[in-house]
Amino acid sequence: MCDRQDTIVCVFDPKSSRISALQIHEWIYEQLHLREEEMRMVQVDGPRRRVFIKFVNNERMQQVIRTTQGQLEFHHENGELSLVQLDIAGLGMR
Q1: How many CA atoms within 13 Å lie on the side-chain side of 88?
Q2: Cα 8 from Cα 54, distance rounded (Å)
Q3: Distances in Å between the alpha carbon of 64 and those of 16, 23, 46, 93?
Q4: 93 in a domain, yes or no?
Q5: CB contact set of 40 (below 8 Å; sequence gap of 6+)
């Protein structure tokens, strides 16, 4: 992903159980309350346990960061609970 403008990165706990693409998409809908038309793309980086979500507009992206305060939970099917960090993509070190 070369253009990370209007994109957030969701960093899942690397020590947690593997998460399927279907579970990630359900989590986006249920926890972030995002509709398909609000997103341009969802990219899953399985080995690094990261999910990039590119938004249609910057306002909605900023709203998601504010309302989640940069952190959410993911409930695994086995009952495990893990934290997910949300941040604007591309702001960290490369």
Answers
A1: 11
A2: 7
A3: 24, 19, 22, 22
A4: no
A5: 6, 54, 55, 56
Q: What is the pTM of this model?
A: 0.86
pLDDT in tens, 4-63: 689 999 999 988 888 899 999 999 999 999 999 999 999 999 889 999 999 999 999 999
Residue-level pLDDT at 5: 84
Say yes or no to pLDDT of 1 above 50.
no
Six token digits for residue 38: 């609000």
In this predicted structure, the answer to whether residue 94 has a pLDDT above a threshold of 50 is no
Domain containing residue 75: CATH number = 3.30.70.330
Give the Cα separation of 86 and 74 in Å (integer).
Answer: 12
Q: Which residues form the domain of 69?
A: 7-88
Distances (CA, A) of 33 to 15, 44, 90: 26, 18, 23
